[in-house]
């Protein structure tokens, strides 16, 4: 379709609850392959993601969960504004090709606050543009039928070939997807089931084998064992092959069968609109147009029916849920949208923005009778007048429809406006057209797709001690009945079980069921241990399915090296978000420190007693092998003592040397007062106790000391020879000789 969103951002701020239309906080999408074409300007680029916030700023993260090569993006979207993210450089990682293979191309978009999201192909030639409106969680389901037009071929001149395709992305692991194609594909024949197994974020593309309109895959049945999102694409559709400058890419993200209805209103975008495609989901479906008694019977599920659009608005009613694909046309330009049913859907307020280079813009509106007089445009009456509305044929006046053009004066280029209705809900389509080479045409249908579907979300697993709030809010006037008997719009759950809710608003009823399980996770950690001061140990944590560990020290990972006493707590985060906690303790034992003293010299017959610390009565080991508190040492060598306390070991050693230790006795002294060699000094290796006696040359004793202190300086004697007798009282040795006194 030659359509670009051109900064058109429609924000649903109505009453219908958290899953409003395309606004959501979670989106899954798979981008189809678009031909790059044979023109000088590429047909498949640039590509953008566009995000629009509602009343609150939102932080948006874009990732490919199954593709490690795709670097995630984080985008800040201010309140009530739109932001684009150019992904052209990632095109090889985005487009779901080659076909027929399991790929890792699924996009996951998460937002901190509700946003709208679109994937946009802006061809450089402005001739093969497309906007895929992402439908959030409303797009997820387990059964789909693919609607395709069967009037126009795909252009034959492109490389790679332009084809129609169905692209699927899995949102959970172990998802089995089965296709039953209505026409031959590049991997199989018509009606031959194709089954693939996809993990979370993995994708698969089913491509038509031919390019003719009859070769399109309309009515193909898609089923899955877990929720998936589905994209349909019809590439380079040749609307008027001989009179138009370019062909048009068309496509959309599908709704699952569970979101469909049996009554639709189609409002023509221009007089050239000629076609809507109906696809049945149940055999024997009867289709009536504009209340006619002449019904069309669709005998099998997946059968298609082309509805001619002969009136400004068309009522389509069916006996079972159907898909309705509206083909909007303006000249050579084609656009399409998968329409929501009118019953139990709608919005009270929609924000729109006019593109900067849009030549014309028009709104299509559907509202229950009585609401046509209550429209406001930026709070003003009259821009959307009641006179613009007319009864939808065959609805007995129940539904009214209008096409309202907006001039540049009413909505300038780049400006945003709010369309609201104070009385009732409405459906809104926005059509924007740019003229020029090939031109472009945008048909974006934004409505509360979940208007009366209640969605409790997927089955949940609670962590022990946690609670979960199930929400079924469905707007004013809704009544709730839970399986527990509660009648509020929310239900607090703390116990495992199966919970259902039934919601009724007027004639609309919706139910949903969710299963809740409770998990009690555990984490194992190294038992309490004791450490010796100065040593370290590694604490180890282990938990099944753990994806992260954090210790109370701030460290992460399953192992923690410790060297200090204390209590250590680890929190393990398990797959699914549950956490488990465990603690252990570490005590420190002081080392039994002591000293054997400095290295020692033994002289002659000396012995040395080495003694253990007084408190050491056990755990002793000497280098000699003794375990006694003391040992006597006679021989030189290295001696050590090792003490062990509470597993902690400390050792000290001493080196013992042995020498003869002969004293050095002078043979001359000069006690002349010059401070040198003044006294008779006996020098020895130790401070032994000496007894000294001194005699003159006639044998008379002139000095005696029983505890000599190296202090005899020939006091009262003159110069001459003297004789000494020195006794080592410690060792029992005697030394005798002479000493000459000079300088007196």
From TrEMBL:
Annotated ranges, domain IgGFc-binding protein N-terminal: 137-406
The reply on keyword DNA repair is no
Q: What is the lineage of its organism?
A: Bacteria, Pseudomonadati, Bacteroidota, Cytophagia, Cytophagales
Q: Any stretches that span the bilayer, and where are they?
A: none
Q: Give the species this sequence originates from.
A: Hymenobacter ruricola
Q: Where is the signal peptide?
A: 1-21
Print the keywords alphabetically. Answer: Signal
Question: Per its UniProt record, what InterPro entries does this chain match?
Answer: IgGFc-bd_N
What name is this protein filed under?
Answer: Gliding motility-associated C-terminal domain-containing protein
Q: Which PANTHER family match?
A: IGGFC-BINDING PROTEIN N-TERMINAL DOMAIN-CONTAINING PROTEIN (PTHR46534:SF1), IGGFC_BINDING DOMAIN-CONTAINING PROTEIN (PTHR46534)
């Amino acid at each position: 379709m030659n359509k670009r969103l051109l900064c058109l951002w429609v924000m649903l701020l109505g009453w219908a609850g958290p899953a409003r239309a395309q606004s959501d906080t979670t989106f899954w999408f798979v981008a189809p392959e678009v031909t790059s074409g044979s023109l000088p300007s590429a047909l498949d680029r640039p590509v953008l993601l566009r995000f629009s916030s509602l009343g609150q700023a939102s932080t948006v993260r874009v990732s490919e969960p199954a593709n490690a090569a795709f670097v995630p993006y984080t985008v800040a979207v201010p309140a009530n504004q739109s932001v684009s993210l150019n992904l052209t450089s990632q095109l090889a990682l985005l487009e779901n090709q080659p076909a027929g293979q399991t790929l890792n191309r699924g996009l996951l978009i998460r937002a901190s606050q509700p946003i709208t999201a679109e994937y946009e192909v802006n061809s450089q030639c402005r001739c093969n543009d497309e906007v895929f409106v992402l439908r959030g969680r409303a797009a997820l389901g387990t059964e789909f039928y693919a609607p395709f037009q069967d009037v126009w071929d795909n252009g034959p001149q492109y490389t790679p070939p332009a084809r129609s395709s169905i692209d699927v992305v899995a949102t959970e692991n172990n998802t089995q997807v089965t296709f039953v194609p209505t026409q031959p594909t590049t991997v199989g024949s018509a009606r031959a089931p194709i089954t693939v197994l996809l993990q979370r974020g993995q994708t698969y593309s089913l491509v038509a084998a031919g390019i003719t309109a009859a070769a399109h895959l309309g009515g193909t049945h898609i089923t899955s064992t877990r929720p998936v999102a589905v994209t349909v694409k019809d590439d380079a559709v040749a609307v008027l092959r001989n009179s138009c400058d370019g062909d048009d890419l068309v496509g959309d993200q599908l709704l699952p069968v569970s979101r469909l209805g049996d009554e639709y209103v189609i409002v023509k975008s221009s007089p050239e609109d000629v076609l809507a495609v109906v696809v049945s989901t149940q055999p024997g479906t009867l289709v009536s147009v504009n209340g006619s008694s002449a019904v069309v019977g669709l005998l099998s599920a997946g059968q298609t029916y082309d509805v001619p659009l002969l009136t400004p608005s068309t009522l389509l009613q069916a006996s079972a849920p159907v898909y309705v694909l509206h083909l909007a046309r303006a000249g050579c330009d084609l656009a399409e949208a998968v329409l929501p049913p009118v019953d139990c859907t709608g919005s009270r307020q929609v924000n729109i923005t006019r593109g900067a280079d849009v030549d014309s813009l028009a709104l299509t509106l559907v509202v229950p009778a009585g609401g046509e007089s209550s429209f406001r445009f930026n709070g003003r009456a009259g821009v959307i007048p009641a006179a613009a509305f007319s009864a939808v044929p065959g609805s007995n006046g129940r539904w009214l429809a209008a096409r309202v053009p907006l001039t540049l004066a009413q909505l300038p280029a780049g400006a945003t406006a709010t369309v609201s209705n104070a009385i009732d809900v409405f459906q809104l389509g926005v059509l924007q057209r740019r003229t020029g080479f090939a031109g472009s045409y945008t048909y974006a249908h934004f409505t509360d797709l979940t208007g009366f579907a209640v969605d409790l979300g997927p089955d949940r697993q609670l962590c022990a001690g946690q609670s979960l709030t199930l929400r079924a809010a469905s707007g004013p006037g809704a009544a709730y009945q839970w399986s527990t008997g509660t009648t509020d719009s929310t239900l607090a759950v703390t116990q495992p079980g199966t919970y259902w809710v039934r919601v009724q608003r007027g004639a609309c009823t919706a139910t949903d069921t969710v299963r809740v399980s409770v998990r009690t996770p555990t984490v194992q950690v190294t038992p309490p241990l004791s450490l010796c001061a100065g040593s370290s140990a590694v604490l180890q944590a282990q938990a099944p399915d753990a994806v992260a560990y954090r210790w109370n020290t701030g460290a992460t990972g399953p192992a923690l090296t410790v060297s200090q006493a204390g209590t250590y707590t680890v929190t393990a985060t398990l797959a699914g978000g549950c956490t488990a906690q465990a603690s252990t303790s570490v005590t420190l034992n002081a080392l039994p420190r002591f000293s054997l003293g400095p290295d020692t010299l033994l002289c002659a017959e000396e012995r040395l007693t080495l003694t253990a610390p007084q408190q050491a009565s056990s755990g002793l080991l000497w280098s000699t092998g003794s375990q006694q508190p003391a040992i006597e040492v006679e021989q030189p060598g290295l001696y050590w003592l090792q003490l062990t306390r509470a597993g902690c070991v400390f050792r000290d050693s001493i080196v013992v040397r042995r020498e003869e230790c002969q004293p050095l006795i002078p043979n001359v002294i000069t006690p002349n007062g010059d401070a040198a060699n003044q006294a008779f000094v006996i020098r020895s290796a130790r401070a032994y106790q000496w007894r000294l006696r001194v005699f003159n040359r006639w044998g008379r004793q002139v000095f005696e000391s029983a505890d000599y202190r190296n202090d005899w300086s020939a006091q009262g004697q003159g110069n001459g020879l003297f004789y000494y007798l020195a006794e080592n009282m410690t060792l029992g040795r005697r030394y005798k000789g002479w000493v000459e006194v000079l300088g007196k």
